Amino acid sequence: MNEFEIIEKYFAPLSRDGLRDDTAVLKIPPGFDLIVTSDTLNEGVHFPLGEAPEFIAHKALRVNLSDLAAAGARPLSYQLNLAFVQKPDCGWLEKFTGVLAADQALFDIYCSGGDTTSIKGGFSVSITALGLVPSGQALGRGGAKAGDAVVLSGPVGDALIGLEALRGNIITPHADFFALAYRKPLPRLALAEGLRRYAHAAVDISDGLIADLGHVCRASAVTAEIELAKIPFSAQASLLLESGAVSVEALLTGGDDYQLALAVPPENIGFLDFEHYVIGRFVSGSPKVEVLDAGGEVLSFKKGGWQHF
Q1: What are the angstrom distances between the C-alpha of 140 and each of 72, 137, 196, 199, 285?
Q2: Which CATH entry fits the domain spanning 149-292: 3.40.50.300, 3.90.650.10, 3.40.50.2000, 3.40.50.11540?
Q3: What is the pLDDT of residues 5-57, one digit of tens each?
Q4: Residue 151, H or E segment
Q5: Domain ranges within the chain, ordered by starting residue
Q6: For residue 64, what pLDDT band results from cuts at 50, 70 and 90?
Q7: Phi, psi at residue 46, to the nearest 5°?
Q8: Residue 301: predicted pLDDT
Q9: pLDDT at residue 152 above 70?
């Protein structure tokens, strides 16, 4: 099949209009704002060489949905751009688009367009996701206030362990558990309404808890003080911490966790109707993140989180 036959057979069914045009016409309901986010995943950087198409599809879409969740938005549609090293075979395309179709149904989103092309290098997939939020209610990084609690939506570090397990750097009987956390993140879209009602700011911690919480601090001009003893880790990760197979610094800075870090007024904590962990507070001060040990001493880390350059 040529490029256009591939699009017609495998990608047009993911859309609502058959991808007949080079542009998409999207209707934004009255009273809503449009939220836009983009992420590019490259072979050898964001997923291993030879990764299964199912896991590439899961991750490519879900990392974008995580950004929509942090804004308090519900999904609308997405643009899909693929750069192939060589023409993909039918089996690869069926698995890739099959997973996208399943995730579209799960998260109520559809493909509104995109592009397929060739590349001299590794395979690359880029998605731009669009979401809707009631006008004026989108969450960002700049709303945290001194006195707000630092709240996490779930445990951190499992994805970093998953990546290291896939690389063969960590040996654990729970390798499949960790690998799934890395390969198939769960965007916290179900939290969106609660975030809009009760949080001042939110960010997904895909680049690492310290780095992304630091973005909130800089945007809000506050200091985040978090207590190491209150940071949640899965039972499986805790075992590796206890054995010394992995460090606290690695789990807090490794990235690829798609939990949300929130700034929530203390009086609103009791209204949060989802799993959450209060791990510290925002205070007045220069924009920074301080991790305190059991004695109240500030821990020092070599890096804050993932950076490409």
Answers
A1: 9, 10, 10, 10, 20
A2: 3.90.650.10
A3: 899 999 999 999 899 888 999 999 999 999 999 999 999 888 888 899 999 99
A4: strand 149-152
A5: 3-134, 149-292
A6: very high
A7: -100, -15
A8: 86
A9: yes
**Could you tell me which of 210, 192, 194, 215 has the C-alpha nearest to residue 143?**
215
* Side-chain half-sphere exposure of 117, counting CA atoms within 13 A: 11
Dump pLDDT digits (tens) for 173-215.
Answer: 999 999 999 999 999 999 999 999 999 999 999 999 999 999 9
User: Which tokens sit at 241?
Assistant: 């911490």
Ramachandran region, residue 287 (left: φ > 0; alpha: ψ -120 to 50; beta: rest)? beta
- First-to-last alpha carbon distance for the chain, in angstroms, is 38
**All residues at 6 or more sequence positions from 267 whose CB lies less than 8 Å from its CB, including other chains:** none
Percent composition of the chain: helix, strand, coil (DSSP 3-state, to 5) = 35, 25, 40
For residue 223, give the H/E element and its range. Answer: strand 223-227
Quick one: angle between helices 158-166 and 235-243, nearest 10?
70
Check: CB of residue 287 under 8 Å from CB of residue 214. yes
CA atoms 271, 274, 280, 281: torsion sign: negative
Tens digits of residue pLDDT in 79-122: 999 999 998 999 999 999 999 999 999 999 999 999 999 998 88
Q: For the whole model, what pTM was predicted?
A: 0.93
| Neighbouring residues of 112: CB distance < 8 A, sequence distance ≥ 6 | 15, 16, 24, 26, 77, 78, 79, 130
Q: Give the β-pairing of 223-227 and 288-292.
A: parallel
- Rounded distance, CA 35 to CA 107, Å? 16
The confidence score (pLDDT) of residue 21 equals: 86
CATH architecture of 3-134: 2-Layer Sandwich (3.30)
